[in-house]
Write a structure and sequence with these properties.
The two termini are about 30 Å apart. The radius of gyration is 15 Å and the shape is globular. The strands form two sheets. It has a three-stranded antiparallel beta sheet, with no helix packed on it. The protein is built from six helices and five strands; from the N terminus they run ααββββααααβ. It has one domain. With about 150 residues, it is α+β, with helices and mostly antiparallel strands. It binds iron/sulfur cluster (2 copies). One iron/sulfur cluster binds next to loops.
């Protein structure tokens, strides 16, 4: 891949990654696109997801315009370190910043972009509703377990 060093995540620190390498680290699990809130020190995830998230392939339909929404946060090193509660425990950025390894199902490890979904580690494995900007019946809002 252009501008991506082979096995860069084993050789470089997060702060030294170029843009292409940073983007390649995202496993597209979609878990950071879930509505969530803080309860004490714990992050509680709900079954409400951003209505720009396409569940078919766990992609953002407005990725290059996402910051214009006013609520979407660009995941950068500052977010990883100062707002880790926005990200699930499996997030590749979090894992590497903690000195851990990428999980075996990460697309960079498998060479298969579909391996995160196939392994059950994406939002596709969770029952969610996609009506963030619509009127939501409070009775349909549930908290979900996300690791
Ligand atoms: S949680 Fe991390 S790895 Fe998963 S989609 Fe969000 S930024 Fe990418
Ligand atoms: S705008 Fe895109 S990246 Fe941001 S929360 Fe929604 S689906 Fe996720």
């Amino acid at each position: 891949m252009e501008n991506i060093e082979k096995e860069f995540w084993k050789k470089k620190k997060l702060k030294d990654l170029n843009d292409a390498e940073w983007e390649a680290l995202c496993d597209h699990c979609g878990k950071c696109c879930v509505q969530k809130f803080q309860q004490g020190s714990k992050t509680v995830f709900t079954n409400i997801i951003c209505d720009h998230l396409c569940l078919k392939d766990i992609s953002c339909s407005i990725y290059h315009r996402r910051l214009l929404t006013g609520y979407c946060v660009k995941v950068d090193l500052n977010v990883v370190r100062e707002m880790p509660f926005l990200l699930p425990g499996t997030c590749a950025y979090k894992l590497l910043d903690q000195g851990k390894e990428l999980p075996a199902w990460h697309p960079l490890m498998t060479g298969d972009p579909g391996s995160v979904v196939a392994s059950g580690n994406s939002l596709a494995a969770v029952s969610v509703i996609t009506e963030m900007s619509a009127m939501i019946d409070p009775a349909r809002i549930e908290t979900i377990e996300i690791i």
